[in-house]
Amino acid sequence: MLCSTTLMAQQEVQYKWANDKVKAEGTLLQGGIEDGEWKYYDQQGNLVQVVNYEFGEFEGPYEHYFENGKLSEEGTFVNAKRDGFFKTYFQNGKPELIGHYENGYKDSVWTFYYENGNLKLKGTYENDLRVGVWSSWYDNTQEKQITSYEASKAKVGAFYSKDGNQLVNNGTGEVKTYYENGQLKEKGSYEDSLKSGKWEAWLEDGTKQFDHSFQNGERSGTWKEFYETGTLKVSGVYEKGEKNGEWTIFYENGNKKSASNYLMGEQTGAYSAWFEDGTLSEKGSYEKGKKIGKWEWFLESGKKDMLGHFEAGKQRGEWKYFYNNADQLLSEGTYLAGEQDGKWQYYYEDGKKWKVGYYVEGKKDSLWNIYHENGTLLITGKYKLGLEEGKWETFYSTGQKQDVGYYSNGEMSGEWQGWYPDGQLRYEGSYEEGLKTGLWTYWDEDGKKELSETYADGVLNGPRKSWYLNGTLRDEGNFKNGKQDGLWIYYHENGNKMMEASYNESRINGKVTSWYEIGTKESEKFYSEGVPNGTFIFYEKQADKVKRVVKFKEGIKVEQEEK
After folding, report:
1. Among candidates 100, 159, 101, 153, which has minimal Cα distance to 131?
2. What is the secondary structure of 463-509 as a DSSP string?
3. Could you tell me which of 201, 243, 202 has the C-alpha nearest to residue 221?
4. Burial of 111: CB neighbours in 10 Å, binned 0-12, 13-18, 19+
5. Most-buried pick from 32, 51, 154, 535 (CB within 10 A)?
6. 0.85 surpassed by pTM
7. Dihedrals φ, ψ of 234, to 5°?
8. d(CA 497, CA 468)
9. pLDDT by position in tens, the chain (length 563)
């Protein structure tokens, strides 16, 4: 729901929830563009956000609130990007973090806090990357870790337990962290300030979370991750920071999700994937990280979905697509360098031919035929580099011609004709560069004219006539640039005049005379550019007997007299 108060070129608006509570309020410029301060509320009426806009983009102070009305975040936007200090808060009102942005990127010193107000983490960003020395603390103020960042690589110089024991000194030592219940949370070692050897982690209930291996800070050796239930999720091997050898991903029920092979970070060799019930979903091969050779995809029912070939990661050669849960082909054709190329055929679900045509470099080209389900031709025509070209024809399912026309560079061009199913002409006219031009004529199923009109550049321009079903003229007049122009005459179905009126840009102008169906005058009226202006005289059906006179001045009725 929208309520507004208009003031010149801007509006003060309110949007409301279905319960009539205010959802948002602020200023809209012309075109619905937000400007100035906007406030947003939840369905209970609580303030959620205060945002400032400048011509539709965030500019200036920004605030976000918790449901209890306390501030959760505040900062400033410049040119729709975060810029300057931003702060977030816990619901108790204490700060959660204080940081600085520069043109949308984290920059300068950032400080993080625990909910009790104690310092948690502090360090410096440059262009969204951590740099220099970062220090962290436990919630009891005990120093936890000192880390140096060089070229985005983290080096741990010191690590302390919560009770103050130094576990890593000068970059060497074993780290152990615990949950509040005493359960081991994470265990691993550092050498020369980098992770080394086996690293393990557990959930609070003792369930294994992961087994990782490192060498000189890089992932190296066995790598396993587990679901919260303890079942294996991922298993593989790293070498010098890159995946190497077989990697397997599992569903939570223990079934394989995918199996792939890597050679120093690039997928290579056989690849397979499965649905959760163990049914094969796809299989194929990789070489240097790109798909090669034959690939097949399957539905959960086990039926084929599609199959085809790749070369260096791009589709090439014959491809086939199937209808869902059926062995019936949907389409088949060839690819070249990832684009459809050559002959393609499409089928209805019962196997009958639907479409046949050709592609060149991914664009339709040459002859295309489309068929009715009964096998008769529906559409035939040619493409040139993806655009219709030359003669196109359509047919009814009986084989009777329906439409014939021409295209040039994808646009209708030249003469077009259409027929009814019995062969009776339905319409004829011409196009130029996709726009109707010249005389267009339409007939009803009995062969009688029902409309003729004239176009220029796709717009009505020139004479127009329409007819009743009995063949008598319904109306006749002229259009100019798509608008009624000059004298128009309308007729009753018996052939007698109904009305005469003159138009200027589709607005009635001057005297308007109308007649009853029996031929006697019904009224005389006067208009000025579509506005009643002058004396309106209304007549009884008996010839020339006045029943009412009404006078207008510039659209306002000034006098009325009943006879």
Report:
1. 153
2. EEEEE-TTS-EEEEEEEETTEEEEEEEEE-TTSSEEEEEEEETTEE-
3. 243
4. middle
5. 51
6. no
7. -140, 140
8. 13
9. 544 444 446 889 999 999 999 999 999 998 899 999 999 999 999 999 999 999 999 999 999 999 999 999 999 999 999 999 999 999 999 999 999 999 999 999 999 999 999 999 999 999 999 999 999 999 999 999 999 998 878 999 999 999 999 999 999 999 999 999 999 999 999 999 999 999 999 999 999 999 999 999 999 999 999 999 999 999 999 999 999 999 999 999 999 999 999 999 999 999 999 999 999 999 999 999 999 999 999 999 999 999 999 999 999 999 999 999 788 999 999 999 999 999 999 999 999 999 999 999 999 999 999 999 999 999 999 999 999 999 999 999 999 999 999 999 999 999 999 999 999 999 999 999 999 999 999 999 999 999 999 999 999 999 999 999 999 999 999 999 999 999 999 999 999 999 999 999 999 999 999 999 999 999 999 999 999 999 999 999 987 789 999 999 999 999 888 87
Q: Is 340 exposed, middle or buried (0-12, 13-18, 19+ CB in 10 A)?
A: buried
Full DSSP string of 131-186: EEEEEEE-TTS-EEEEEEEETTEEEEEEEE-TTS-EEEETTEEEEEEE-TTS-EEE
Measured CA to CA, the distance from residue 430 to residue 412 in angstroms comes to: 9
Position 191, amino acid: E
Q: Comparing C-alpha atoms, which of 450, 388, 395, 396 is closest to residue 414?
A: 388
CA nearest 145: which of 116, 174, 125, 121? 121
Which residue pairs, CB below 8 angstroms and at least 24 apart, start in 245-252? 251/276, 252/227
Q: Map tokens 């920004």 to a residue.
A: 62
Report the Cα–Cα distance between both ends of the chain, in Å, rounded: 51
Overall residue count recorded for the chain in this entry: 563
Distance CA 63, CA 59 (A): 12
